[in-house]
């Protein structure tokens, strides 16, 4: 019987460490919660398979349907976690999306993309793009998922994410335009506390994506360097930042870039004062959560 190695070759505190034998140990693992009916809100949820080949799945959240003849906007969500932790099936993201679905009266679909470093980047980007392509298969009402066929208005699609999930949502919006994806119309892009790298090379990103420099010349980390940015398929963008977020300056740069790059849409800005990165998950008692949710819901509705 072989003994697992105790020698650590790479350590990224807060995310994961890698042992000499290739074993990955995360600092934080998501708590799985099953889908079902929420008796308080009446929201139903279920898990669906996006691709049987890759194993990519998603969780769909359906609010109470008051009028079946009136289809609802579809919010496609990409969870945060530095591309390497987090899950669409965790309690934190399920609770957040349930609240959003209830208040905004939308259908939501949170994508369970494959995580690095077991699945090196850009796999998470590819999975995220594949999820929107899967949604587009429902444009004629004959897709593989009945809830989307019956209740989703694919002319009102919102892409959303926080942290690394915001990076993925932006990437998918650009791909939808650059690749001329038919069958969906992206009306809103919700970017919350985005992760767009840093000015200097980012060691953890470079480890998870060996083909990247981990710096500003990578268009996935720096949208200003993306030659397809002006092709982004979206009408309106809301950039939500936190005053004390260590990534705030990159979010501000993204907001400025979207305001001057000529993509043809409108970009808005909202800042939560005195808060840090993704505080609405890490500091659930914050008084700034409700104003943030109100801002998000208002953006989705209007």
Automatic annotation (TrEMBL):
Residues 75-280 form the Alpha/beta hydrolase fold-3 domain. It comes from the Eukaryota. InterPro entries: AB_hydrolase_3, AB_hydrolase_fold, Carboxylest/Gibb_receptor. GO terms for molecular function: hydrolase activity. Belongs to the 'GDXG' lipolytic enzyme family. PANTHER family: ALPHA_BETA HYDROLASE FOLD-3 DOMAIN-CONTAINING PROTEIN (PTHR23024:SF408), ARYLACETAMIDE DEACETYLASE (PTHR23024). This is Arylacetamide deacetylase, putative.
């Amino acid at each position: 019987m072989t003994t697992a190695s105790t020698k650590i070759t790479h350590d990224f505190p807060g995310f994961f460490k890698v042992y000499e034998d290739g074993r990955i140990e995360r600092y934080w693992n998501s708590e799985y919660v099953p889908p079902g009916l929420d008796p308080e809100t009446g929201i139903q949820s279920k898990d669906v398979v996006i691709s049987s080949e890759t194993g990519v799945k998603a969780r769909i959240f359906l609010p109470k349907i008051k009028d079946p003849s009136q289809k609802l906007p579809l919010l496609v969500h990409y969870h945060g976690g530095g591309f390497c932790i987090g899950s669409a099936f965790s309690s934190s993201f399920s609770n957040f999306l349930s609240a959003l679905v209830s208040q905004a009266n939308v259908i939501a679909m949170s994508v369970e993309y494959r995580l690095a470093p077991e699945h090196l980047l850009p796999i998470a980007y590819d999975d995220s793009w594949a999820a929107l392509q899967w949604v587009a298969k429902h444009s004629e009402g004959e897709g593989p998922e009945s809830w989307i066929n019956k209740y989703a208005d694919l002319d009102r699609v919102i892409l959303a994410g926080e942290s690394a999930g915001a990076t993925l949502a932006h990437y998918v919006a650009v791909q939808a335009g650059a690749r001329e994806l038919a069958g969906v119309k992206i009306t809103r892009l919700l970017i919350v506390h985005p992760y767009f790298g840093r000015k200097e090379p980012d060691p953890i990103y470079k480890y998870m994506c060996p083909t990247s420099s981990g710096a500003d010349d990578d268009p996935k980390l720096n949208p200003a360097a993306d030659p397809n940015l002006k092709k982004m398929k979206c009408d309106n963008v809301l950039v939500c930042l936190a005053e004390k977020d260590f990534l705030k300056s990159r979010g501000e740069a993204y907001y400025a870039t979207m305001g001057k790059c000529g993509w043809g849409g409108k970009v808005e800005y909202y800042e939560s004062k005195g808060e840090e990165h993704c505080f609405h998950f890490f500091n659930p008692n914050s008084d700034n959560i409700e104003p943030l949710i109100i801002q998000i819901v208002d953006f989705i509705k209007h």
